[in-house]
Amino acid sequence: MATANQSFSQILLGRPLETAAAPHQAIGKVPALAVFASDALSSVAYATEEILVILALAGAAYFTLSIPIAIAISVLLIVLTISYRQTIFAYPGGGGAYIVARDNLGELPAQTAGAALLTDYILTVAVSISSGVAQITSAFPTLYPYRVEVAIGLILFMTVINLRGVKESSSAFAVPTYFFLGMAFLMLIVGAFRWATGTLPQVSSVEMVADSLQPLTLFIILRAFSSGCTALTGVEAISNGITAFKEPRSRNAASTMLAMSGVLMTLFIGITLLARAVHAQPSEAETVISQIARTVYGGGIFYLITLISTTVILIMAANTSFADFPRLAALHAGDGFLPRQLTFRGSRLVFSWGIALLAGMASLLVIIFQASVSALIPLYAIGVFLSFTLSQTGMVVRWQKVSKMQPGEEIEVHGAIMRYDSQWRWKQIVNAVGAVMTFVVMIVFAVTKFRDGAWIVIVLTPALVWSFFRVHHHYKSVASELSLAGESKPIAARPLKTLVLIDNLHAASIRALNFTMSLGESWTAVHISIDPDRTADLQRKWAARMGDTPLVVLQSPYRSLTEPLQTYVQQLRQESPNAYIHIVLGSLTTESYWQQALHRNSTLAFRMAFRQMEGVAVTSIPFQLHNLLSEN
Amino acid sequence: MATANQSFSQILLGRPLETAAAPHQAIGKVPALAVFASDALSSVAYATEEILVILALAGAAYFTLSIPIAIAISVLLIVLTISYRQTIFAYPGGGGAYIVARDNLGELPAQTAGAALLTDYILTVAVSISSGVAQITSAFPTLYPYRVEVAIGLILFMTVINLRGVKESSSAFAVPTYFFLGMAFLMLIVGAFRWATGTLPQVSSVEMVADSLQPLTLFIILRAFSSGCTALTGVEAISNGITAFKEPRSRNAASTMLAMSGVLMTLFIGITLLARAVHAQPSEAETVISQIARTVYGGGIFYLITLISTTVILIMAANTSFADFPRLAALHAGDGFLPRQLTFRGSRLVFSWGIALLAGMASLLVIIFQASVSALIPLYAIGVFLSFTLSQTGMVVRWQKVSKMQPGEEIEVHGAIMRYDSQWRWKQIVNAVGAVMTFVVMIVFAVTKFRDGAWIVIVLTPALVWSFFRVHHHYKSVASELSLAGESKPIAARPLKTLVLIDNLHAASIRALNFTMSLGESWTAVHISIDPDRTADLQRKWAARMGDTPLVVLQSPYRSLTEPLQTYVQQLRQESPNAYIHIVLGSLTTESYWQQALHRNSTLAFRMAFRQMEGVAVTSIPFQLHNLLSEN
After folding, report:
1. Residue pLDDT, tens place only, B116-147
2. Helix axis angle, B249-277 relative to B44-55, nearest 10°?
3. For chain A, which domains are there?
4. Chain B, nearest residue to A619 by Cα
5. Which residues of B touch A523 (CB under 8 A)?
6. pTM as predicted
7. Cβ contact (<8 Å) for B617 and A620?
8. pLDDT in tens, B215-269
9. B518 and A496 in contact by Cβ < 8 A?
10. Under an 8 A CB cutoff, do B628 and A557 touch?
11. Quick one: CA torsion of B468, B472, B478, B484, rounded to 10 degrees?
């Protein structure tokens, strides 16, 4: 079985990779934009639509409000870009929110930022895949009833791809990203041209999602603004990945960030304007992007290619989470805040546990929310904005530290070099503005989306942080208990009592006896008597085979396998408190699991029974049943 | 955790019972009727209704046909009773279909009978509980939407009761059974009196289940007959349990069987007649019994008491399966056709695995068929009639053997004494008639109910029989492989190579080292190097603490924990093919499962890696982390 599994997993995942094979290669600005921007750019596929979904509550008459809202979000993007530029220069080794918060604010804000980011990576997968599937079902409405299945299928596919290990070749990213950018800009240009020449038709035959109309309130406008802010998710990606850039790293990363923000802003405002021009209607059946493309091109091959490019960029966006989540989870685990297993690299050098965890959680979300982007959006982005706020606040604190340094002085903190900067006050103000604005947006988001699902994240994030610290406390106390604290006295052998359990006298128990004899120490054979007839039978066989060698019989009046032995071992320990008790028993090993299930497999029961007893070890001697092979 | 669980299970199930406490007490005829007849008698609660459900397909005009159908079924009952009387006298030690088939027909028919009976015990629980719940929801229609939950609740309740061990005190059976009989006969008498005096009203306000009418065909009449045959399930119970009777056992059992059949026939025909007289309508909302009682008594306390007594007898009927299924499964398991675990008696002397299996399967059926008796009926009874046929055929073969004996000669087969009987030919004819009639009914049942669900049983039964033989083959080949075949040469100690795995140098690995030293043989310390930095660190610590003692470092370029060690062990085995390899490693034991999940728990990985390697044993030395207690 094990062999069959192994070869199956090798077919699925490829041959194992050596640790030394981990690649380190720097990339230029043009491919870097593709690698880091897919998450941010793909959000234009749904951000405009989500604004319209909320405005629809007050009626289609207010759809024009989407334009000022998009402009307000763009202003926020400009502030964020300037703030993050400073982070990029301050942390050339990579300045994710977790690291910036840990260096400047302490453990609690750092863990909070981490929890928020991990949650949001999961949501990025769920939202991007759901949106990608929505593009597919816009073009092929017959697939709509199977949207959950299609989404889960895509997540599984990406899981396998990532367990194989995506070779982060920049071309794999560059082609779909620039393909999407090309198609998106083409759509904007053709649309603008047809609008200017008065030949742009309006969307037809789309049923809008709206039940009873509510009056337009500030609350609704803020809700629409919050929904649109999902356009900003992913803009922090470049600051996390500065080390991937060619030298001068920070400068290249900063100009890539600038380019990304410019493209993002243009696309977002352009799509919002065009949606207005064609009178796009938010709808479960067809995405706004599909409506625009269909109207601009009048259907046909260009429409289809536009949708395909959008779907592909959304899948690429989900894929960035498959790279980032396991890496961040491993960082947390390495610091002892998440289970250590998350730091293990699998046979293909990837963090397999992290990938599996991400895929499992994202699939769960897709199933619960039925692959609906609008249902997922209230959970999304709140974590991103929390981490924005913490990261910018960390920068503010950092500038305060910088201000106390001497010109020319350099301090290294966790690999990031801190230098005096005469401009510190201005830069601090920039980051402070960023921190305040993102904080305000987060509060607006939390309040306006609270009932729609934001409460889940608001409850979950502190719960996660609490668990992180509980895990950390556990590892710390284990470490202190395992610590030898400089103790170095020689290790003295202790007395040993060996027991061999005899259930019946057959080839497997003979092997256990043989092993026990081979240990070369004295030993005692013990039988636990549940059925008096079987015991009498064994005693007869024992005498015939083993002569005078005594066989201790422990009565088990309540038919428990382990309790009489526990009592016996307790007695032995009282007699010689310093001794190790070594319990040897035979066990049968079959080739297949259904066969194994036909046997008692009592080894586990004994191991569990003695796991809390100090100095007691249980050894099972497997006896391989080979002739059963033919049964398969 | 283990302790907490144990005390919880003791609260739920009671204190453990000694093996010697198993009771053996003989009972008289009057309580015996109660103990063995609840299954058979309770079926009158649904048999009439199920006939009407099928006749309704052709229209209410044909409901009068239920009377000749009930009479035909009663004729079948008479034949069965006479046939089973003979089985009772032939097998005073208990003559269940499994035993009669095994003695006279061979393994395959015996296993088939067993598979059929086990399936039907599961269905008895599902049908009886569903019918009981239908009585409850007839009286309290608000409970109808929760019928599945109520049914599962009842099954869970019975599971706990039976895991505690039902003390088969006859009064616990006698009270509800005779209470039901009293209420049922009272209803018949009052109903007959009101009918004779012309004061019997007709059922009102019941909506009949019928969509489009079909013409009345022979097929529909046979289907109705098949449905009604469920009244005969359970009549074999007395022949299984003859040992429980006072001496003269067979005579007492036979007259009890006669009494039971008489009561069953009277009740079944009486209820069918009364159902016709009050114009009862088959309905999902109200059972026929409820309609009759409501009409006869005009509602009120007598109506309610009648329904309660019916519900209780149905639950008692389900309870007989909880006694019979685990016993029969243990019989199969003892003969090696089902997993041995089914023969283990739990702390309360009951076959816990069998009870759990029955409860699980019955619950599954109740959930799948939404606690609908009419939906479950097509699966039911086919197994019973198959086992009737096999048992009667077995008797026919037995009489043939008897005919060849000398007068006065006695042969013992499996505890049943076979004597010459001059009446053998007549008796053989009786059993042959029984065999043929039950076989015909089974075929009618299979054909007429095939599409409604009988196909499931028709597919499942051979599959079960096949698995039984596969299990049997497995146990036989294991036994032959384990057999020492009279070998008795002295057991010679073999050379031993002890390896101790060192992952890091801390208290737990020091304990593993200490245990290894205490074994008193030479040993080798081995480290599997995944991370070069950690290995260098360990080597430094090792040198400081252990001086010149060598530490073998196995490189693991693919980060596998077990593969380098497997290769190393293979080398050792090639060097000394006769040696045992003993691998010792430390492991951490925490108090709670969430803490345990935070550790690598590599013991299992090593044990799995070496389970197929002959002569390799893995011992983990647990290190108990006690100070973590305070975390809980």
Report:
1. 989 999 999 999 999 999 999 998 888 888 99
2. 40
3. 25-388+442-472 (1.20.1740.10), 496-631 (3.40.50.620)
4. B619
5. none
6. 0.76
7. yes
8. 888 889 999 999 999 999 888 888 877 877 888 888 888 999 999 999 999 999 9
9. yes
10. no
11. 160
